[in-house]
């Protein structure tokens, strides 16, 4: 049977059963890729590396779908003991096949009454059918993004269409949408912007293990977890009444099963025997991001004084979004600082690490995971542009962490890891200052050179920091290991500084008079070099103090005095 061939159950009944038909792209342990059904994903999870997805955001959306399914099929984990039993049981997902068979109709992409994640008979007032561009994120309306289908998506096979439906609920863009028949929010046939899909508001974070089975279990948070809300009636979308057009009453998610399958859109595929050729898409159930930290575990949170003032509330947390230009290790503190450490006196915490990493911290603190156990903190999130109507970029990074860094009794290791990021920031700032000083010495006024130098600095430190962080948990003394990092960073940034000096040219070597805090002075590349080495030594706590390195001036040298005149 061809991949997207329809299964005919009766002359008037066609089906594409997601429980038995391959549609989820996965990577096997040997690196090869294939597509599996929901049934196969769970029965083969221990032999799979990860979900692949057409985009990183699709991988995250599909993972959340699988987690909702696992939570519901296993009815848990109820507590840490239940989770421990699952972790120890190689056949822990054995209940899933029977669960899928029980709810099979709700996983039929083409069901006439309850099509998967769709609304049967959804229509506009004029019975319009729109291009599939509206749900395929790599061809947004306007400029193509990651596009291999320019200029339009004419057709999708049913497997790919199912993936994009899951992705649409999670990450659909905002903007004016055509009103669907029965949606009271429609004005003159349009619904005005109501925000992006729920997952698109997050700086997505999850714990990635060595296999898909480990990944699913590491993110399967027990219902007795402090700080997260799990109502007794928590259910995924396929165990609720099918959604109709518009929104029917405001409600909050009842738990992660509900939240991971939240229906932020209303849509309906139009298809024939060869696949999907069009879609109707409208807004669904809105969800406000503020103070959702007690429901959503797969993002870090930041306190927002501006929103507190605007809303007249004493405490407002918002998701901490990702910057695609900023590597994950540079935001390490948001991932590993616990709530107590981010609290200043009696003040509420300024930030909250992701609930899923709080959960992993609990697993290691209570001895369910060994301290040397290695996870990858995976971060995925979109950057929307033009009033959230398009996706401009996608952040996708992973950071290898020994769970020891999350252990409540091993906070010295976590603190040294965070402080090492500050070391890197300081060193790169010194490199950027050098670029600025060399430009001034040459008679150039440009901040672009500073930005370029900083980018080069962070790029040079990226791989070494990740390696150092990987090895940190095995070190006997985290403070001594921090000094190792400072020396490595000093060497790498010094080398980049020397390259800048060599490329500065004759104008910088000759120099010019500039105005400084304490009058005018003659700035040339030699003085810029002295300032740079002094700043770098200070940023990295003088890592070669007392050593013969030849890499920079010692404490008390003339460069420190020269800096005072700048």
TrEMBL record:
InterPro entries on file: CRISPR-assoc_prot_Cse1
Q: Where is the composition biased (Basic and acidic residues)?
A: 233-242
Q: Where are the residues of the annotated region Disordered? A: 233-252, 547-566
Q: What is the protein named? A: Type I-E CRISPR-associated protein Cse1/CasA
């Amino acid at each position: 049977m061809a991949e997207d061939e329809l299964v005919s159950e009766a002359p008037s009944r066609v089906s594409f059963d997601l429980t038995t038909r391959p549609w989820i792209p996965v990577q096997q342990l040997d690196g090869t890729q294939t597509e599996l059904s929901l049934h196969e994903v769970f029965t083969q999870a221990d032999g799979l590396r990860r979900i692949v997805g057409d985009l990183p955001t699709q991988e995250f959306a599909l993972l959340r779908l699988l987690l909702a399914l696992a939570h519901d099929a296993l009815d848990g984990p109820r507590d840490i003991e239940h989770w421990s039993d699952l972790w120890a049981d190689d056949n822990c997902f054995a209940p899933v096949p029977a669960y899928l068979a029980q709810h099979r109709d709700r996983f039929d992409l083409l069901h006439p009454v309850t099509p998967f994640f769709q609304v049967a008979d959804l229509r506009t007032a004029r019975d319009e059918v729109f291009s599939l561009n509206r749900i395929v994120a790599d061809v947004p309306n306007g400029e193509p993004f990651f596009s291999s289908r320019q200029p339009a998506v004419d057709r999708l096979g049913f497997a790919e269409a199912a993936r994009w439906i899951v992705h649409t609920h999670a990450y659909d863009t905002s903007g004016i949408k055509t009103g669907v028949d029965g949606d009271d929010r429609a004005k003159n046939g349009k619904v005005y912007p109501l925000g992006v899909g729920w997952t698109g508001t997050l700086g997505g974070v999850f714990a990635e293990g060595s296999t898909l089975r480990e990944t699913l279990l590491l993110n399967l948070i027990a219902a007795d977890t402090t700080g997260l809300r799990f109502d007794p009636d928590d259910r995924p979308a396929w165990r609720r009444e099918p959604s109709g057009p518009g929104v029917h009453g405001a409600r909050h998610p009842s738990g992660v099963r509900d939240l991971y399958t939240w229906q932020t859109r209303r849509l309906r595929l139009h298809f024939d025997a060869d696949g999907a050729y069009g879609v109707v898409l409208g807004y669904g159930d809105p969800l406000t991001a503020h103070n959702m930290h007690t429901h959503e575990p797969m993002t870090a949170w930041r306190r927002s004084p501006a929103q507190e003032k605007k809303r007249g509330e004493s405490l407002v947390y918002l998701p901490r979004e990702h910057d695609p230009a900023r590597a994950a290790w540079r935001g390490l503190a948001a991932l590993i600082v616990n709530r107590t450490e981010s609290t200043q006196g009696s003040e509420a915490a300024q930030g909250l690490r992701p609930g899923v990493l709080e959960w992993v911290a609990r697993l290691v603190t209570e001895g369910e995971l060994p301290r040397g156990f290695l996870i990858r903190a995976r971060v995925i999130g979109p950057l929307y542009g033009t009033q959230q109507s398009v996706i401009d970029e996608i952040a996708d990074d992973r950071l290898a962490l020994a769970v020891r860094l999350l252990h409540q009794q091993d906070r010295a290791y976590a603190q040294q890891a965070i402080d090492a990021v500050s070391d890197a920031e300081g060193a790169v700032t010194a490199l950027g200052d050098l670029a600025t000083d060399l430009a001034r010495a040459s008679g150039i006024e440009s901040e672009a050179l500073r930005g370029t130098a900083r980018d080069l600095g962070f790029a040079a430190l990226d791989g070494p920091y990740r390696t150092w962080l990987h090895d940190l948990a095995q070190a006997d003394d985290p403070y001594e290991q921090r000094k190792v990092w400072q020396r490595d960073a000093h060497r790498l940034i010094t080398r980049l500084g020397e390259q800048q000096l060599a490329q500065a040219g004759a104008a910088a070597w000759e120099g010019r008079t500039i105005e400084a805090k304490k009058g005018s002075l003659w700035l040339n590349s030699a003085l810029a070099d002295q300032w740079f080495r002094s700043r770098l030594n200070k940023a990295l706590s003088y890592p070669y103090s007392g050593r013969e390195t030849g890499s920079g001036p010692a404490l008390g040298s003339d460069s420190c005095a020269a800096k005072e005149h700048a």
